[in-house]
Please model this.
Amino acid sequence: FPSHDTKDDKYGRISGLEITGDVLNVVQSGKISTIYLGAQLSKDATGAEILSYDPNTILGSSRALLEDIGSSHKYSIVKTGNYIYGFDINSAIPWRKSLAGVEDLSRYKMKSYFKNKVETIKLSGLDNIIIIGGYDSHKNIYYLTFIDLHDSTNNETLGFHEPTNRWISFHSFVPDLYASIKNLMFIAFRSATIS
Model:
């Protein structure tokens, strides 16, 4: 997938599919790619890229983003408006994808924290780690929760405040799942089943 053949298997399994505008965002464990919906990308004689819409095309041209960032934790991937959030455990990076590309959210004074966090939780084995995300549109906060099924002392929730681009809080709650109901209500569930 995204190039409609098997050559991009090197980027890992698909963890999420999210649509922003006329683009399908494909999140794999090692890369994020975009596929134009109903359009093909080509180049003119000068090498400039041209996007042409074709009513007979459903999935058009695809493009892997330059950044080697993705996610193998599908529950960390959250879409709100034109943003998609997620967590890449391989590079210890929480990220935000916008129309401008992918941004490393650990760069906001949390790079060493996330690196240390991933080193610690990996000791329990990747099969014992669940990472979930949720977005509270009223508070404009992306919540990122780490659940270690082997060592509960590693469980925690952090909050990234979108308007200020800051990690503003560590929370004592560790929900199993987040839900948003038509941007009217944001809920965190405890003791839900995650599969």
In short: Confidence is low (pLDDT under 50) at residues 1-7. The radius of gyration is 18 Å.
